[in-house]
Amino acid sequence: MDFWIVPPDDIRSGRTTDVYFIRTEEIMHARGINPHVVAEVVASGLEGGWGVLAGVSEVSVLLEGRDLDVYAMPEGTIFFEEEPVLRIEGRYLEFARFETPILGFLCHESGIATKAARIKKKAGDVPVISFGTRRQHPALAAVIEKCAYMGGMDGVSNVAGASRLGIQPVGTMPHSLIICFRSQQDAWKAFDEIMPEDVPRICLCDTYCDEKTEAVMAAETLKRLNAVRLDTPSSRRGNFRKIVEEVRWELDIRGFKNVGIFVSGGIDEAEIEELRDIVSGFGVGTSVANAKCIDFALDIVEIEGEPCAKRGKKGGKKQVYRRKTEKGFEDFVAIENSKQHFEGEPLLKPLILGGRIVEDFPLSLESARKRVLEQLKVVEMD
Ligand code: PCP
Question: 8-112+292-376 — its CATH code?
Answer without folding.
Answer: 3.20.140.10
